[in-house]
Amino acid sequence: MEVKRIALIPGDGIGKEVIPEGVKVLKAAAEAEGFKLEFTNFDFGADRYLRDNGHLIDDDELEELKKYDAIYLGAVGDPRVPAGVLEHGILLKLRFDLDLYLNLRPIKLFDEKYCPLKNKTTADIDFTVIRENTEDLYISAGGFLRKGTPQEIATQEMIATRFGVERAIRYAFEEARRINKKKTVALCDKSNVLTYAHNLWLRAFNEIGEEYPDIKKEHYYVDAICMKMVRSPEIFDVIVTPNMFGDIITDLGAEIQGGMGTAVSGNVNPNGISMFEPVHGSAPDIAGQGIANPIAAILSAAQMMDVLGFETASKKIEKAVIRAMEEKETTKDMGGTLNTAQAGDVIAKFVKEA
Amino acid sequence: MEVKRIALIPGDGIGKEVIPEGVKVLKAAAEAEGFKLEFTNFDFGADRYLRDNGHLIDDDELEELKKYDAIYLGAVGDPRVPAGVLEHGILLKLRFDLDLYLNLRPIKLFDEKYCPLKNKTTADIDFTVIRENTEDLYISAGGFLRKGTPQEIATQEMIATRFGVERAIRYAFEEARRINKKKTVALCDKSNVLTYAHNLWLRAFNEIGEEYPDIKKEHYYVDAICMKMVRSPEIFDVIVTPNMFGDIITDLGAEIQGGMGTAVSGNVNPNGISMFEPVHGSAPDIAGQGIANPIAAILSAAQMMDVLGFETASKKIEKAVIRAMEEKETTKDMGGTLNTAQAGDVIAKFVKEA
Ligand SMILES: CC(C)[C@H](C(=O)O)[C@@H](O)C(=O)O
Ligand SMILES: CC(C)[C@H](C(=O)O)[C@@H](O)C(=O)O
Question: Which residues form the Isopropylmalate dehydrogenase-like domain (chains A, B) (predicted)?
């Protein structure tokens, strides 16, 4: 029997409540499909940070994590810790140090009743954003001059490398070919203003695009793409974009697909370990009440199964989630009456029945 | 009789078609209100650039422009000129060299039928974005190393100064007080990741905010604000944000208020000349057909009148536009049957009747 080992990082707040539901559903899917998943818990997050002298993730732990087949992350962030510390020390550290250079964010509406847009069907909102995940404004380079004075200036560096940009763009073209839908890749940048960093993106896109004559190329400035995502999301297939704009447009995407409750984020290194997480945060305002919606975490688990090669298990989880939505067997935020654990139970049951 | 002198820069594409309609409506408003507007045409744009050896705007012309009371701009951009050239050489040059440090972008839904969101009323979508307009990623600083090789890297610099950030934030607080609605200013940044440039923003916002105890302060990361703008735009009053994010969220704002057809952008220097423009571009695909929607240009003219102190004229233009929408006396993109000139005629007539 095939065995995969999953490192769990529930993290903070509702992360700790939704990851167990994902595990519940994963176990049901593995049992149904005849493979085995082993889970190991890692306690990185605010509690550990506060208890353990500011501990985040050290080099040994990073090496340890690399031995797993995948990482399944809840969320990090806690009001007791200064903003940015846990994000940088855990989430961004894992993305950068494990070279998780692709952030795969499917934008998919599962049920029209959750869509905030007029006249859009589930067929209209179904595309993928490939966000470059290791460069751009996220490299934490910058500084202050005369900090705290009226003459203060602060800088922040955006960096793009041909190496980093090319591997993201190439993946996008391959993905458009693989999913074989509209066979279109759209670049989202701001090369009319960012005439250095995004000029590199635009040139790389045009050059690599020539190797994919079967794939249509489109190009949108980031401001224009936000409008299009609201007005005519049906035009999109695969979008590739630098890190910062990817952050922005995928949150907008999460909203048009019905909100954070269903949005997933796969941080992927095709040659190494990958990490899967719901897009939502730790939501300190509702943490500890047992009311968090586990669906995004459960769909992240489905994405993990897909990337690990268990496509049928992935599809079964996705179908079970859609059934739960249709039957309104959901938490309150999606119109149901269940608590977090009950919502997870229902989906695990639907996976077994599938 | 009070006289104001307006410099017209129709620019490219549909810019040349919509500015004359704005002028038509402005003349009607000035006549109705008993003041006088004088218009002088400047031919900056693609035709001039191509005819005149790459001419954009030179220093003498810039000095000349400073003598006017306001600049009324159509749009720049033309497929015959490399992307970025006209944007940098005209639009951004004017914003920077005239120190137009505030970009005022009201997000206002005039008529529910144009809103792409479910269940939102005109009362729900009515807020203002103050976009800092002279710093951030727009300063054109950056470079290439090993350009054109597989080892290429490109950099782009984001700069924030206390001076530049403070004047934008201060204006936002004053504006929230002046309009006296929700008395709330929201900062939109990404200070959890951009720990230098946006940390300066966050500190400045908190410090200056203390001087405005009567104004509520809110803080959103840019990704979160995009979601909120779609889910619950009714929570916003005044938003202040750095240049690049301002570009993005105001286009999203334009879309939720019914699309580019009604979105306006005031580039303001409270101590000097200001420039008013529709948010839409030159739209080469529909230019020359007489079908462009002049409403955004006309509402920009209303914004110009407001800033120049002709508040009644401004209100009259806005009301005339709303009436045109209600009566579907609009161009095709807004459901009407009129061409550009007819749509302008109707609004000018409604201004006179107001
Ligand atoms: C928490 C934050 C650092 C992160 C990001 O900006 O990438 C989040 O918004 C995301 O999109 O995963
Ligand atoms: C044309 C472009 C340079 C400009 C910008 O990015 O500011 C436009 O998008 C705008 O918002 O006015």
Answer: 5-347
Are B187 and B220 in contact, with CB atoms under 8 Å apart?
A: yes
**In CATH terms, is domain A103-263 a member of 2.40.50.140?**
no
Q: Is the pLDDT of residue A261 over 90?
A: yes
- Cβ-contact A326, A88 below 8 angstroms: no
Q: Which of A88, A143, A158 sits opposite B156 (nearest CB)?
A: A158
Q: Do A117 and B115 touch (CB under 8 A)?
A: no
Residue A103's CB: how many other CB atoms inside 10 A?
Answer: 24
Alpha-carbon span B258 to B266, nearest angstrom = 19
pLDDT of residue B102: 98
First to last CA, chain B: 21
Examine domains A1-100+269-354 and A103-263 and report if their fold is the same: yes
**In this predicted structure, what is the pLDDT of residue B1?**
87
- Which atom in ligand 2 lies closest to the alpha carbon of residue B76? 1
Encoded tokens for A116 = 């905030």
Q: How many CB atoms lie within 10 A of CB B2?
A: 12
Q: In terms of CA atoms, which chain B residue is nearest residue A115?
A: B118
Measured CA angle at A31 (ends A29, A37), to 5 deg: 80
Query: Could you say which of B68, B190, B220, B237 is catalytic?
Result: B190
CATH class of B1-104+260-354: alpha beta
- Residue B140 Cα to ligand 1 midpoint, Å, equals 26
The residue of chain A with its CA nearest to that of B203 is A148
* Distance from the alpha carbon of residue B247 to the mean position of ligand 2, in angstroms: 6
Catalytic site includes residue B345: no
Task: Compute the nearest-CA separation of B30 from chain A (Å).
Answer: 34
Q: Which residue's CA is the nearest one to ligand 1's atom 12?
A: A279
Domain A1-100+269-354 fold: Isopropylmalate Dehydrogenase (3.40.718)
Task: Kindly determine whether residue B150 and residue A156, on different chains, have CB atoms separated by under 8 Å.
Answer: no
Backbone angles phi, psi at B281, to 5 degrees: -90, -165
Do B225 and B188 contact (CB within 8 A), yes or no? yes
Cα(B93)–Cα(B97) distance, rounded to whole angstroms?
Answer: 6
CB-based contact A154 B230, cutoff 8 Å: no
Is residue A339 classed exposed, middle or buried when 0-12, 13-18 and 19+ CB atoms within 10 A define those classes?
Answer: middle
Residue B75 CA, ligand 2 centroid: distance in Å: 10
Decide if A153 and B159 are in contact by the 8 Å CB cutoff: yes
Catalytic status, residue B223: yes
Q: Where are the domains of chain A?
A: 1-100+269-354, 103-263
pLDDT computed for residue B58 by the predictor: 95
Average pLDDT of chain A, as a whole number? 97
Give CA–CA dist A299/A318, Å, rounded.
Answer: 6
Spot the catalytic one: A190, A212, A316, A345.
Answer: A190
Q: How many CB atoms within 10 Å of residue B143?
A: 12
Percent of chain A beyond pLDDT 90?
A: 99
pLDDT score of A1 more than 90? no
Arch. (CATH architecture) of B116-256: 3-Layer(aba) Sandwich (3.40)
Residues 6+ apart with CB under 8 A from B304: B6, B26, B70, B72, B266, B274, B276
